[in-house]
C-alpha cells in the first residue's frame, strides 16, 4: 500500500470504488448461378408474421440493414417490399436508398432493391450518386452474372431487364475484368427483348477499356454502325481515354479530329483526358498548349483539368523544374481555380520543398485564393520543419495579417519549435494569439496546449494553462489529469503527481492504465521501487490490468539499480499473467547482463526473445557489441555488427559510433576506416575521429 498511501488515504479509494459499482433467354454465364442459393445463403426464411412484426416503423433514424437483408433474400422479396411501402413503414429518400444499398453483402440483394426502388420512384434512375453506389457494391461484392435464373426472378417480380439495369451490370463487370463476358452479353441482348443501341455500346466499350482490352474496344467501336448505332461524344471520349491510358497520344488526337468530323466538338472532359495523356507521355509542353486551345474555343478548364496538369507535370519531371514551369504558367493565367495553387502547394509540402511552398503561398494569398485548413496545415507544417524559425514566423504573420485563419495545430507546432530553441517570448506571443482568436475554448484544445508544454517539460506553463482552464469554467477530463501527471513524472516532481492524483479523484474520475503507468514511472525515476511495486498491486485491486509498458518501466528501473534477480521475476510474472513481453522487456535485462560481463546469460535471454518472434534492435545489438569488445572478443563483435542488416536491423548512428570507438581503442584503425567509409556512404554524419 505504500505506493498509494503517500498519495491519498485508503478510504478515499474505497469510497470511490463503492460509488462506481452502483426462360426465353439461354444461359450465357460462364458459370451459371443458382438463384435459389442466392436466396438462402444469408438467413433461414422467416414467416410473414415474424417479418411484419419485427419492425413497426421503417422511418427510424437507424436503419435495420439486417431486416432488409432478410427480406431481399426471400423469393417473395418484391411483394414484401411493396407491402412495407403501402403500410408506410418505409420512406424512400436518397439517404435511405444509399444506406441500404451500401450495407448488403450479397450482390443480388442491392440489385433487387434498386429494381424495386425504380419501380416505386422512377426519378432515381437519373440519380447518378445512387447509381454509382450500386455499381460500387456490385464491384465490391460481385460479380453478379446475368443468368437465366436472375432474368426469370426479375420477370417474376413484374419487371424486365432494361438498358439502365444492364449498363450498371456491365460497368461492374468491366471493373472486375470480365470484358469478354460483356461482349457476350451484348451479342445476346435480343434474348432480353432489347436491341443494341449507342448507350449499350458505350457501356461495353468503357468496360473493355477498364479491362485494358483496347483492341476489342476498337472492334466494338467499328461494329456499331452494323447495328445502326452511331458513336456520340461519350463514345469518342471513352476511346480517347483508352488510347491515352495506353500511351498512344497521337491516336487520341486522330480520334479528336474524327469526332469533330462527325459533328461533335471536344468538351472539357475531352481536354482533361488529353492533358493527362500528354503528361503521361512526358509531352508537357503540348499539355500546356491545350489550355490555350481551350481558351480560344471558350471552354473553361474545371478542377479535374487543372489537377491533371499539376500532378502530371510533377510526375514526369524533377520537382524544382516542375515548380518553375507551373509558376510561369500561373503568372499567365490569373483566373485559374483554387485547385491550381492548392494542388501545387500540397505537392511541394509533401515532397518537402519549403522555400518553393513559401513562395507560392505568398502568391496564392495575394491573389485571394482560398486554401482549406487541411491544405494550410500541411503547408505550414512543412515550413516549420524546413525553414529557419525567423522565416517561418514571418510567413505565418504574413498569412494571419491577411485574414487567413490558422488552426491550433500550426500555432502549437510553431510554439513548440520556438520553445525548444529557447525563444520563449516568441512562443508565448503565438499562444496568446491562439487564445485571442478563440481557438482554445473547450477541454479538447486545452488538453492539446497542456500536452504541448508537457512534452517539452515546461511544466510551469502547463500548470498555468490548467489554472486558466479552471478559471474559465472549462471542465478537465481524465486525459487532462493523465497528461499533467505524465509531465510531472518525467521531471521527477512526485509531490505534484500526488497532488494531481488527489484532484483526479476529487473530480470523480477513476485512475486508468495511463494514470497508474505514469505514477509508477514517477516513483521509479526517484528510485522508490518498493512504492512503485505496491502501486502495481494497487492497480490490480482497482481492476486496471497492467500492460507491457507498466512492467517494462519496473523491469528497467530494477535493472538500473542492479537488481537483475527481481527484474527476471517480474518478467516471468508478466508472461505468467498473459502479457506478451516485447523487445523493450528483454533489452533492459540483456543490457544489465552485458554490463556485468555475463554474456552467456544475456545470450540465453536473446534465445528466449527470438523464440517469441521478437527481433533484436539496435539497443540489443549495441549491448552485445560493447560487451564483446570490452571482453577482447573483437572478431565476434565484428561478425555480429556485420550480421545486423542481414537479420533485418540496419545499424544506426549510435551503434556505428559504438563499434567504431571500440575497435579504434583496440588499435584496429584500418578496419575502423572501412566502417567509417561505409557509414558515410549511407549518409551517416559521424563526428570526425582524429585518431584515424
From TrEMBL:
It comes from the Eukaryota. The keyword Cell cycle does not apply. It holds the Pfam family PPR_2. One of its GO terms (molecular function) is mRNA binding. Residues 1-32 are annotated as: Disordered. Keywords: Repeat. InterPro entries: PPR_rpt, TPR-like_helical_dom_sf. PPR repeats lie at residues 197-231, 232-266, 267-301, 442-476, 477-511, 512-546, 547-581, 582-616, 617-651. Belongs to the PPR family. P subfamily. This is Pentatricopeptide repeat-containing protein. It comes from Anisodus acutangulus.
Amino acid at each position: 500500500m505504500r505506493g498509494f498511501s503517500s498519495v491519498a488515504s485508503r478510504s478515499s479509494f474505497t469510497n470511490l470504488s463503492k460509488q462506481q459499482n452502483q426462360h426465353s433467354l439461354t444461359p450465357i454465364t460462364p458459370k451459371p448461378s443458382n438463384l435459389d442459393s442466392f436466396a438462402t445463403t444469408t438467413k433461414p426464411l422467416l414467416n410473414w408474421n415474424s417479418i411484419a412484426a419485427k419492425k413497426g416503423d421503417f422511418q427510424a433514424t437507424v436503419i435495420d440493414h439486417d431486416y432488409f437483408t432478410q427480406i431481399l433474400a426471400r423469393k417473395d422479396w418484391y411483394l414484401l417490399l411493396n407491402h412495407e411501402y403501402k403500410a408506410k413503414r418505409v420512406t424512400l429518400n436518397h439517404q435511405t436508398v444509399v444506406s441500404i444499398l451500401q450495407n448488403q453483402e450479397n450482390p443480388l440483394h442491392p440489385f433487387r432493391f434498386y429494381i424495386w426502388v425504380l419501380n416505386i420512384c422512377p426519378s432515381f434512375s437519373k440519380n447518378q450518386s445512387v447509381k454509382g453506389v450500386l455499381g460500387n457494391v456490385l464491384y465490391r461484392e460481385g460479380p453478379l452474372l446475368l443468368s437465366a435464373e436472375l432474368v426469370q426472378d426479375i420477370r417474376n417480380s413484374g419487371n424486365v431487364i432494361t438498358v439502365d439495369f444492364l449498363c450498371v451490370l456491365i460497368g461492374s463487370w468491366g471493373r472486375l475484368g470480365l470484358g469478354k463476358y460483356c461482349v457476350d452479353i451484348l451479342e445476346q441482348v435480343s434474348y432480353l427483348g432489347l436491341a443494341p443501341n449507342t448507350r449499350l455500346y458505350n457501356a461495353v466499350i468503357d468496360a473493355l477499356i477498364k479491362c485494358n482490352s483496347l483492341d476489342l474496344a476498337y472492334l466494338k467501336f467499328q461494329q456499331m454502325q452494323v447495328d445502326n448505332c452511331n458513336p456520340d461524344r461519350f463514345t469518342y471520349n471513352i476511346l480517347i481515354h483508352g488510347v491515352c491510358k495506353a500511351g498512344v497520344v497521337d491516336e487520341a488526337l486522330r480520334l479528336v479530329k474524327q469526332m469533330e468530323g462527325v459533328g461533335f466538338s471536344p468538351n472539357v472532359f475531352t481536354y482533361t483526358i488529353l492533358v493527362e495523356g500528354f503528361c503521361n507521355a512526358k509531352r508537357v509542353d503540348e499539355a500546356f498548349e491545350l489550355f490555350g486551345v481551350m481558351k480560344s474555343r471558350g471552354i473553361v478548364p474545371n478542377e479535374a483539368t487543372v489537377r491533371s496538369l499539376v500532378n502530371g507535370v510533377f510526375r514526369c519531371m524533377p520537382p524544382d523544374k516542375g515548380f518553375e514551369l507551373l509558376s510561369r504558367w500561373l503568372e499567365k493565367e490569373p483566373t485559374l481555380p483554387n485547385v491550381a495553387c492548392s494542388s501545387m502547394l500540397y505537392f511541394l509540402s509533401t515532397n518537402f520543398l519549403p522555400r518553393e511552398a513559401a513562395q507560392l503561398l505568398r502568391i496564392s494569398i495575394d491573389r485571394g485564393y482560398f486554401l482549406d485548413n487541411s491544405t494550410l496545415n500541411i503547408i505550414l507544417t512543412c515550413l516549420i520543419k524546413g525553414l529557419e524559425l525567423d522565416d517561418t514566423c514571418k510567413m505565418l504573420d504574413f498569412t494571419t495579417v491577411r485574414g487567413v485563419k490558422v488552426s491550433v495545430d500550426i500555432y502549437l507546432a510553431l510554439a513548440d519549435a520556438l520553445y525548444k530553441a529557447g525563444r520563449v517570448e516568441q512562443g508565448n506571443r503565438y499562444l496568446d494569439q491562439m487564445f485571442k482568436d478563440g481557438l482554445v475554448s473547450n477541454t479538447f484544445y486545452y488538453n492539446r496546449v497542456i500536452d504541448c508544454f508537457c512534452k517539452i517539460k515546461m511544466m510551469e506553463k502547463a500548470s498555468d494553462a490548467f489554472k486558466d482552464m479552471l478559471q474559465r469554467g472549462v471542465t478537465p477530463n481524465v486525459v487532462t489529469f493523465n497528461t499533467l501527471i505524465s509531465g510531472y513524472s518525467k521531471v521527477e516532481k512526485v509531490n505534484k503527481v500526488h497532488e494531481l492524483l488527489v484532484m483526479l479523484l476529487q473530480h470523480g474520475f477513476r485512475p486508468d492504465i495511463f494514470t497508474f503507468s505514469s505514477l509508477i514511472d514517477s516513483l521509479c525515476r526517484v528510485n522508490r521501487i518498493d512504492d512503485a511495486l505496491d502501486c502495481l498491486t494497487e492497480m490490480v485491486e482497482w481492476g486496471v490490468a497492467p500492460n507491457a509498458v507498466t512492467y517494462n518501466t519496473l523491469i528497467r528501473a530494477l535493472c538500473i539499480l542492479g537488481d537483475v534477480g527481481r527484474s527476471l521475476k517480474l518478467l516471468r510474472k508478466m508472461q505468467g499473467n498473459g502479457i506478451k513481453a516485447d523487445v523493450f522487456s528483454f533489452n533492459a535485462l540483456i543490457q544489465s547482463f552485458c554490463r556485468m560481463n555475463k554474456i552467456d546469460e544475456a545470450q540465453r535471454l536473446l534465445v528466449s526473445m527470438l523464440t517469441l518472434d521478437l527481433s533484436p534492435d539496435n539497443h540489443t545489438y549495441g549491448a552485445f557489441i560493447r560487451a564483446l569488445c570490452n571482453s577482447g572478443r573483437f572478431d565476434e563483435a565484428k561478425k555480429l555488427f556485420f550480421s545486423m542488416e542481414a537479420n533485418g536491423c540496419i545499424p544506426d548512428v549510435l551503434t556505428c559510433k559504438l563499434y567504431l570507438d571500440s575497435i579504434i581503442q583496440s588499435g584496429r584503425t584500418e578496419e575502423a576506416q572501412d566502417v567509417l567509409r561505409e557509414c558515410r556512404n549511407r549518409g551517416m554524419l559521424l563526428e570526425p575521429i582524429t585518431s584515424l
